Amino acid sequence: MPVNSFKRIVAAAVAAMWVLIGNPAAAQTWAPSKPVEYIVPAGAGAALDTAARMVKQTLEANRIVSQPIVVVNKVGGGGAVMNAYLDQHVGDATVLATIAPTLLTSRIIGQIKKTYSDYTPLAVLFSDYVVVSVRADSPIRSASDLMDRFRKSESGLSVGVAAAVGNHVHIAVALAAKAAGVDLKKLRAVGYRSSAESLVGLMSGDLDIVASTTSNVVALMGARKIRVIAISSAQRLGGVFSEVPTFKEQGIDVQLVATQGVMGPRGLSPEQIEYWENVFAQMQRSPEYLELLARHYWTPSFMGHVEAKKYYDAQYAVWSRTLSDLGMASASTGTKDSR
Known about the structure:
The protein is of the alpha/beta class. The protein has helices at 3-22, 47-61, 80-87, 101-108, 143-152, 168-179, 195-204, 218-222, 270-283, 287-295, 305-325; strands at residues 36-40, 69-73, 95-99, 120-135, 157-162, 187-192, 209-213, 226-231, 257-264, 299-303. The protein is globular and about 60 Å long.
């Protein structure tokens, strides 16, 4: 074989190898052959819906998947409506669904019968955090002040949480209070349909504090109507949160990460799982996606199938203990192996 021909063959082989490395999904033996449904257990415009549409936008704009993605809102029952839909699509990898914190907490308190472990976790995508806010004129200026008020109050302080008592924002305050030695009976959680409504309750004086995720408080922070006294992250965030100290900085050794992930129905094949793992890994390298995350103060935290399952198992165990301390855990809260 002529040398030049050999060089051309080698060059073509190397180029093909780099195509596969640069686009992991291209190396898979399975790929969707019809539009992909992305099921969200929240209404249009909610944070979960926003995140799903960010994923759709990134995957389609960068041609990481060859099929269109359709976001479908299945609202109700703390995730039960979404779960029922997944149960109708066993083995169908063209149906994806959001793993939200409420999928864990709703199962722990007995509101739903199934959780992430009854389906196929595919990936963890990003992390969000819980912030604790008070009115700008509140005498509570730090997490230490808050814990002192909890201890001294006879009737307890009212804590606004959304969208349900017993969710992850409620857990974040309970973890901090327990770590500070506060009697959890003095934590009086009040449920609201949305964080927007709980913040209205704070501004009107109906609530002492509000626990919420980061993106819900940005506008009121900018208007100087509220003071954010603590965040549940391991270290400070940037932007408007650069001056907000973590619980740990204030002597309360607590962190709470509220991740969003993706799962499929049970019964997916190894090839289907690998395809979606690689798709979501590739998405993490998109500058547009990272910019969208930063806009909402979310941080990338990708984990594949195996790591995601281990992560959610550990989170489920911690949250189960906390909700047991609050007297809210169902008698049956054990996990099952994911299919």
